[in-house]
Amino acid sequence: MIELPTGHIQKGIGGKKTMRRVVAILMAVLLASSLTSASTTGGVDKDPVVEDTVFTSINHTSNTHDGGTWSIDFALNSGATDNGTTFTLTTQQCTNDGVCDPPESRELVDGEQAGTFSSSVVAKDDHSYVNWRLRVTYPDSEEIEKLPAEGFYKSWSDCWHYEGAWGGDGCDILAESEEPALPAISAALGIITIAAAAITRRQ
pTM of the entire structure? Predict the structure, then answer.
């Protein structure tokens, strides 16, 4: 009866486990990267689900032009109006070269009806989008709710540049789209293949 060296068997098993772990980690990184890119789509406004908030309506300008006015109107529901619920608005503008201004608090102007408010900001040159968010204060519980919970809602301009692609009806000349998402995925798959091959050679 021929006995195989125990150390050789353990080394082979350990190598396979290591390879599986590396591939699993790289696949997780790839998946996280693809989900991050998919969370924002160029030219598609990101807005709250109004029914999940204390507002009955939130309306803002879409496809803003450089130098034009981005405006937003709010209407609180009757319960929030009656109990004295308040909120603040913060905006941030980002340009097509990827530079974002610091967030700024905006004044809210009372509307003609109780519980209605409006605000606005002048769109800067070469702006790609206007970010905005809210902080709602409930006086009965002193609770502060952030809308959205993280980051910003997003309102796109009529000429935007995002992840290598241009879009919008206001661009004089649209740059050729580089479609970066697929090359990024291909590159990640290539890294996984190379890593797996390197581990196999070492076994």
Answer: 0.68
What does the pLDDT look like over 74-101, one tens digit per residue? 999 999 999 999 999 999 999 999 999 9
Q: How far apart are CA 20 and CA 178, in angstroms?
A: 33
Do the Cβ atoms of 129 and 94 come closer than 8 Å? yes
Task: Look over the chain and give the mean of its residue pLDDT values, rounded to a whole number.
Answer: 79
CATH architecture of 50-162: Sandwich (2.60)
Domain positions in the chain are 6-40+179-202, 50-162
Torsion, Cα of 41, 42, 45, 51 (10° steps): 0
Round to whole Å and give the CA distance between 103 and 134.
12
- Read off the pLDDT band of 14 (50, 70, 90): low
Pairing of strands 69-76, 116-122: antiparallel
